[in-house]
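Data deposition worksheet. Section B asks for the primary sequence of the deposited chain exactly as it was used as input, without tags or linkers unless they were present during the calculation. Section C holds the resulting structure in token form. Section D is free text for depositor observations; keep each observation to a single sentence. Incomplete worksheets are returned to the depositor.
Section A, Depositor: J.P.
Section B:
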Amino acid sequence: MDSASDTGKARRTRNASGSHFRQSKAWRTFPLSKLEKITEEDAETLFRKMRWPATDGEPVCPWCGSHEHWYLANQRRWKCKEASCRKQFSITSGTPLAHHKLSFKQMLSAARSFTKGAKGNNAIDLTADVDFEYKTGYVLQQKYREGILHSMRDERLTGEVEIDGGWFGGYIKPENRKINRVDRRLKANLNGKRRVVVGARERRDGGRMIVGVFDTEDQACAWLSESIDIMATVYADEAPAWDDLHATHDVKRVNHSELYATGDKNIINTNQMESFFSRLRRMETGTHHHIAGRYLLRYASDGAWREVKSRVDHLTQTHDLLKAVLAAPQSRSFSGYWQRGSANHVDSLFGDIFAGLH
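Section C:
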């Protein structure tokens, strides 16, 4: 029988033969040959069903909720029949994809490319797959990440939950001459740009996960207390930042300075959170190379989404991504991004970063 220390990444990503899930036929449900057979009309129908799943693709006015409308065939949009509304809307109105100039097949192809990599997808690779400008690919990816981020906002974790934090950013380039180099581990020599990604994850197959970005782990304690059900069992390491959680939750700790797992069958561990941080660091070093602090939460949510979807086939991942994006409000940060400077600095899943535009 596997010990609890083996119930993390290995069990989730490998099948009985020992090969990785992404090497199996079960993963390969959306090959390029299938994408090539999809027409623009097919892609538009798919987007309709992803946008309005409750009505199986029948349009619902995003402004007033009315189901009555006229179809404006020349504009490929609808006009609400409600007398107090009468607004026009399309499939992407009121979502991060609003005002798009891409075809539906291009956006579907981009979603397929975005979900293809276990360690993320960079904008240059995306532009090579879909054939549009780098600026277009970069903003589209960030809108996909906002959809993922929005899908995590209302999560309240239950059951067995692991928590942990990992530090990112704040790289200090060494001086050329050895005599001028400093110990970059000392607080006095830090540049103030390091930030901590704190996450919580349900310990079960398909378990949900949430992430946040903070200046210190202490700042995350109240957020974790609100985000984890009071009846949940929390597994954490020895970091003093988690001490306050003992007042509200059943917390079991492992001292990582002495061992990685403890308790009966090594049940007390944070291996699934360590798996997430391993993925996020490989996304940073191997795919994106650098993640600016203002975008760290978006990339962390991207990594968390990929982690919990690690045993979901490619086609389902693509559909889940589109559902998340089309259920999110219009982006404040990336609507007209290249016309007015950088995106908003967002750290909290609960911050109202989507409502309204500047």
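Section D:
The radius of gyration is 22 Å.
DSSP finds eleven helices and eight strands in the chain.
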